[in-house]
Amino acid sequence: MKIIDIQIALAKLGFTPGPLDGIWGRQTAAAVRAFQAKNNLEVDGIIGPMTLAALLPGVAQPTDLTDPSLVWFKEACRVIGTREKPGAGSNPIIIDWATDLGINYGRDDIPWCGLFVGHCISATLDREPTPNGLLGARSWERFGIRTDPTPGAVMVFWRQSKQSGRGHVGFYAGEDATAYRILGGNQSDQVSLAWVLKDRLVAARWPSTVPAPVPHAVTIRTRTEVLSWNEA
């Protein structure tokens, strides 16, 4: 299910989700809250099973990566392909993510996987706290609540060595027997999908303002990409 489907349904019922552009932002979240309040639902701005059933009767709640409640993951998907600007200068999109978060971020050759996750969370979950020092991937170990790996979870990994203090962070997008498929920033200098060994996982976290999931795997049977080892 797509965000645009939610926006169109809200607009048809007289609510105001903002531009019908498939981008989840504050106006869409506010429209969902208004819809929930009018229909005696929990006012959390999340398209959970009860809200979806009231908004789009007969449409089942997906439990995979198409779940409409995973708005931060959908934002991550929307910006796949965003990459650093080679050579001098920086991609203004990446710089704007930092500006929106109030971060003094000089240039896009500074590791930005934490910035990418911060953008996706803050742009879609307007009441969700982000960790201090979010540019540091390992700072995301303090984010939200603990979960097991599941669609949309924030996945934190060690990088170079377990003792280095360095890390990588992205979103769960599947797994096979030995590795997780991660949708992350600064993977080959862009927002992309990459495979990271399960042995490197430090923590899986979930937004505290979103109902806790029932963790489950999305199994991918064929891995076509090589393993990622040093995301920076």
Features:
endopeptidase fold (from Nostoc punctiforme); alpha+beta; 6 helices; 6 strands; 232 residues; globular; six-stranded antiparallel β-sheet; Muramoyl-pentapeptide Carboxypeptidase, domain 1
Structure report:
InterPro entries: CHP02594, Peptidoglycan-bd-like, PGBD-like_sf, PGBDSf. It holds the Pfam family PG_binding_1. The model has no long low-confidence stretch (mean pLDDT 94). Helix content is 25%, strand content 17%. It contains six helices and six strands; from the N terminus they run ααααααββββββ. A six-stranded antiparallel β-sheet has the order 1-6-2-3-4-5. The chain is of the alpha+beta class and 232 residues long. It folds into two domains: 53 residues, Orthogonal Bundle (Muramoyl-pentapeptide Carboxypeptidase, domain 1); 136 residues, Alpha-Beta Complex (endopeptidase fold (from Nostoc punctiforme)). It is globular.
